[in-house]
Structures
1.
Amino acid sequence: MFLWNVVYFLYNKIPKCRGCFKGSLKIWISRYNKPMSSPLDPSRGIQYDLYRMERAIALCGNPQQAFRGIHVAGTNGKGSTCAYIESVLRHGGYKTGLYSSPCLFTYEEHFRLDGNIIKEETWKTVRADLEGIISGEGLSSFEATTLLAFEIFRRAGVDAGIIEAGMGGTLDATNVIVPEVSVITKLGLDHCEYLGDTLEKITEHKLGIVKPRVPLVMLDPELPQLRHLARQRCLAQGSDLTLVPVEELDIPTAGSFSWRGKSYQISMAGRHQAENALVALHALEKTGPLEEAVITQGLRAARIPARFQQFSHQGHKVVIDGAHNADGAAALAAALAETFPGKRILMVLGIMKDKDRAAMLARLAPLASVLCFTRPRTERASEPEDLLALVEPGLDRPCIIEGTVEEALERALKESTHDDIICVAGSFYTAAEALSFFKRTYDT
């Protein structure tokens, strides 16, 4: 302890010593903040420990303590679950703040107050006020954005802040919050280079958001060993555990589900969205009583872009979904089959190089009548030719290659009839460029 106090004093009180100790401290802190399931690649620009964030919130006066928090982690369904929770609480009269990612178009999308994206000048004012802390502590982009969210919510006087974890849980920048309830949505393999290459390792990271005596609501995982990990973690933390069984759901029609004898309508289609809504309902039970009419209205009003988003364009039915991993692709495929049985589907796909592309294609390609491979404008994107090479040889489908998302969509519109479905998926980058294209050429 004495040695740590000496190092702490030198690092924080004598600027010239900071550079000498910074590298060593990062190594020590990374070990101190274990468990970590895999080594991290510093070239990605991700700074993955909590030390800077803990320092920063302390210097800001702990803005994350100014509101009742709900912390949501998971591989798939985080954003939708957050949207359901926020909408219900807002309809119940709470002043809400929602912090989520990724953004499709503008940085402001990270922050919503009472369901509305904040204005650019709002976050810029807060950023200017906190610049000394952000630069002084060397915060990463995501850490700085998380700090801004806490301070924006404090200044706005929100009652409830719904905080979506960025990646993992244990060492995610959002994990400095002590919430009223923690939530874990569907688990799957993603970000394996950071979180580990097994579901057990990834689950351990997600369970890092569990705080002492804070209840955890978790979608019941399919594997019993993951259930065991959750029970162990909650037992160690003295936290109540609610495993949400999907068997509770009765889904008579697309866009609706029944639970405990009550029927609910949701605007986001697919069984996976009903599961997300069910997780949200269990989490909301932990926050206090809400009128049934509030729950019904809130669930029905919740919507989020690029989550099985449907609209008409020049007489063509379009679906845009941000599915970007194997489980997300499987959920999208199931939703398409359920919503458009027997329909001819032209699928426009742009996928990142660091994803399990073969697994995604194995789930989506059999459903497509025509496959159109493209690439969004990011260095991470796969070349369309590489995606084509991953299609199973025995799959007899027409395949098209287009260099840009815009060209792919123009081709899809030409190749399709008004009875067909144009589905755009593979990444949020692809979804964002598609939404921009349809917005520019909108004609419904």
Note: The chain has 16 helices and 16 strands.
2.
Amino acid sequence: MDMNEGVGSTYKYYTGEQLLYDFAYGLNYAKFAVEEVGSDNDVVSISTSGDDSVDINMSVTRTDEGNLFEAAQLILTAFVVPVNVTDNDDCSYVVNKMLVDFVRTGDVVEGGDAVEVGMSIAKESFALANDDGALYVYGGDFEVRVNNGVEDVVVKKVSISGEKMLVSKFPEGQQKQ
């Protein structure tokens, strides 16, 4: 694969072999456990016409023995993954995943210490570009995958309903010829 040009040259569109190290791999030297708290929903339903967002609250616990480092922080990244997008005939390419948010814990000093962190993913974060470069939120099924730099630690299924919603147009005079 030529990583210098065209679709497929970023993590968003890459369809080649499994990556050896995923985005943000190795940012932490301490060990942490992450679990979602305060949610019983298997699927979060939002609408293109409402003022909806996907809220994810997590408890992060330091699990390593002893204090190898005086204090450690964990960076969690959130990716939106389109699973089954509808009404997107004007999109030749649909991304594999999109980085939409990240959060960093405060210092976690002792093994066993826990902190709470949260993310709020706005519906506009689910927008996909059509062939003219305009961003639309389309109906369909998505996943929000929260990653700790090594693996997905929280996966939230999201169902979006309603007519496609324009988020932003590509600037005039900039459309591809």
Note: The chain has no helices and eleven strands.
3.
Amino acid sequence: MIFDATLYANKPDLGIPRMHQLDHTTLWDDWRREREGLPTRFGRIFQSEGGTVPDGDAVFLDIEHWPDPAGARHIATLREWSRHYPARRVGFYGVVPERDYWASIEPPQSRKYRAWQKRIELRESLAREAGIVHPSLYTMYTDTSRWAEYATAHIREAKRLGVLVYPFIWPQFHPSSEQPWAFMPAETFRDQLALVLSLADGVVIWGGWGTDGRLEWDDAAPWVSVLREFITAA
């Protein structure tokens, strides 16, 4: 299954399920108080940039700033969400497994890899409560020769938790890379899509931002042609 979480302006209907981002600015009435760690009432959590999330669409929670090693605060948020919306299952972007490029390409028996595993296991309760995880597999380096190892390890560790795994990928290089926001070659994106779909339960496509903010949809972009190939074949 392929989900569309992109934020491009004037994007057509791609004929695949949408996945809407809800972050701390949306989830709480007063997100400034939330960032300071102060109590605040769970707010109008069904509102996003595009308005009310349609019933047929999916949702992911994006709360990346919490120092929450065991996931206790995330679990509390998940339970509060479930109290309001018991029929809508959600997962957290990038929380389980923790993204660690360098640890993930080490041998599984190595000290660095095993330390990474331990950090993932600390959040096993969160993963099982959600029933779904969204590993972040963004392309952090323009040298993509080891991306497959990095992605495979993250998906493998996520699958060990016994939950649905829907990783996020992005047809652009990460802003921290040597070519921030640049679109990767179409063949690279094709290889990434194929690998994730072969290993995980599905994939979430992110994107729509560049150096100058929100991007216009470009139906002629090479990565779009690749995505449409996979959508047609699904």
Note: The CA atoms of residues 90 and 207 lie 20 Å apart.
